[in-house]
Amino acid sequence: VRAAETKGIRLAEVTEFRATSGGGVEGRVGGERVAVGTERFLKEKEIPASSAERLYEAFGFDGDFTATIVLVAVNEKLAGAIALADLMKESTPQAISALQKEGLRIVVLTGDRKESAKMVADKLGIAEVRAEVLPEEKGEVVKQLQSESRIVAMAGDGINDAPALAAADVGIAMGTGTDVAIENAGITLLRGDLRGIVRARKLSRATIRNIKQNLAWAFLYNLIGIPVAAGVVYPFLGWLLSPMLASAAMSFSSVSVIANALRLRKAPL
Description:
The chain contains 11 helices and 10 strands. It has helices at 2-6, 39-44, 52-59, 92-101, 114-124, 135-147, 162-167, 179-183, 195-230, 234-237, 243-262; strands spanning 14-20, 24-29, 32-37, 68-74, 77-84, 107-109, 128-130, 153-156, 170-174, 187-189. Strand 4 and strand 5 form a beta hairpin. The strands form 3 sheets. It has a 5-stranded antiparallel beta sheet with strand order 1-2-3-4-5. Strands 8-9-10 form a 3-stranded parallel beta sheet. A two-stranded parallel sheet has the order 6-7. It is an alpha/beta fold.
């Protein structure tokens, strides 16, 4: 839409608009019935659709293709096709490699064609691929992994990823993605860089370690300070704290905990 506006192309008004999650969209444009979506979506509408293989040949792709074909039908007849391809970010292989080195099991979960998904997974060194999955099925896959006593983190950026993001133990949305995905996720990577997941894991471990340090320090501090302030050791050692010193010591305990927590700002990520 933005590209059409920048080129000065006037957008026609659409009526009777209807979207099918994981399939496509349809509506009436200028009095004509238009449907845009996957091959399966058009077949469900009983619209004869050319097979994906023949369309790839028409686009001039060889056997190693990662594009997804979106079909366009007008008045129940195939009118054209659009090839869509996601460009892999340079940082993605590095992020996947770092996560695998940490012992994480990586699964590609996508609604794209099996061939396209397998090609991308092979480039990233990912062995497990589940392709041609509908949005609601993504959530079922997450629940299946959870039933195996696994902690599941799901990263996604589209409307179709929302059910899985909501079902996962940790939902990770891309800041460059849709609002629906962001709303259903617990973490949002503002720049959409998967290396942010690696940094988030490092930060979470550092945070838990910091919390344990603060709890241990506060427990030890109070274990020693409270008996002294209460005069328990006075008969034996002659130690006694005045209320003023006890108040200052308590404040120092809070300050020390806060100071330790502030060290997270310099944690190596």
